[in-house]
Structure formats: structure tokens, C-alpha cells
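--- STAGE predict ---
source: upstream dedup step, 1 unique chain passed
mode: sequence only
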Amino acid sequence: MGITKRYTLDLLRKKEPYISANGSELPGVTTIIGQLDKAALMPWAAKVEREGVLAAIRRGEEPQKAYYYTSLRDAAANKGTAAHAMIEAALRGWEFDPGDTDPAIIEAARPRAERYLAWMAERGEQAEAVELKMVSESYRCGGTVDHTILTSDGRRVLRDVKTSKSIWESHKIQVAAYAAMHEELHGPVDACEIVWLPEAARDFDPDKHIVTLSERERIAGRDIFEALVLVWRHMVVFK
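--- STAGE serialize ---
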């Protein structure tokens, strides 16, 4: 009987860099796409800051020096990371170990992971590759796709799972970029999907929360990404 591998969650663990064939460190897909303006971020951050300051004043306290929105953002990110870790461990057949992670984070993340895994099982899906790390020499960047799955009818689907507040245009560009890189390194995929897991797992509705990129979106997303790669290469000149 084989020994079961263990996935120990460490929220402070740094991601391994993407290294090219010649040994140089490359940017990630999300870093390159991060050059796009996040129009919704500034109003949200301003709103959270205003609410935080007013709440402190009402309590008769001095407003904290650190930004309120960073605490809220990081707490949400930790729950998302934990949910992703549980999904990854389950798809790999590994034991999940929460490590030193706050139990409240684990309990908040667990229903999302369990709901997603149950949905996959209901559909008869099998994970083909999990946390697939790719390094593209043509784009000179790296990226890690959550997983590729094989459907019950034999299709290969590239899928990214999101635990953010919504699905944004940048997410579609990200998945289109992953599909282009996957085609370069491993062959084409039949479909690209984004699965959004709302914070309340019971609210997950496949009809509303799964986005399948159209062929037009895949092409547009790839073209936008290629333009951003070019911008990234030229911006290096000014640094």
C-alpha cells in the first residue's frame, strides 16, 4: 500500500519563479495582465477606507495607520488560497493539512471546495493536469493553470477557478493566454472555462457561475495578451 502524499497549506509560502530555458527569470501571465487598469479597484478601496475611518471615529479611536482595504483584501485572498489548496489536494489524491492556518479561514473555505468537487463528480469529470506550470519561450513568460479536465465525453477543458467578487475581463484574457501557452507546450484544448465560486457555497449555480469563452473571446484575449507582452518588453527599457 503506497504512502499518501500530504499537501500542507502555508499562506506565507512564496511562489516559485518561472525560469526560461537559458536560466533567466520570467514574469507571470497575471503580472503582464496587471498592466491593465483596474477601474473597479479604486472606488472599492476608497469606500472601504471611508467606512473604516468613520467606524473608528464612532468608537472614539484613532484611525489605524495601515490601509483598511488591504486587511479586507488579504483576508479574502487567504480564504481563496485555502479553497484552491483543498481542491488541488483532492484532485491529486493527497491528504490536505491546514498547517498553522487560522481554523476560521479553513472553515470558511471548505464549503466552496467541497461544493466544487461535488459538482465535478456529478459531471463525471476527471482531472488530467493539476496546477500545471507552463513556461512559454515564445511569449517569454510563465503561467500556472488550475487544472485541465477530461469530460465524460472525452473533451479536454482548461479551467481556472476564481474566488474573487466576480469574473472580470482580465480573467478571460488570463485564461485565453493559458490556452495559447497550453497549445504551444501540450497541444490544443477543446474549451476554456472560468468557474466562479461565490463565498456562500450554497449560492453556486453552474448556469450563472461558469463562463465558457467563445472562440471570438479566446482570439481576442490572446491578441490582447500578446499586445501586453509587447508593452511589458518595451517598458523594461524605462526601468
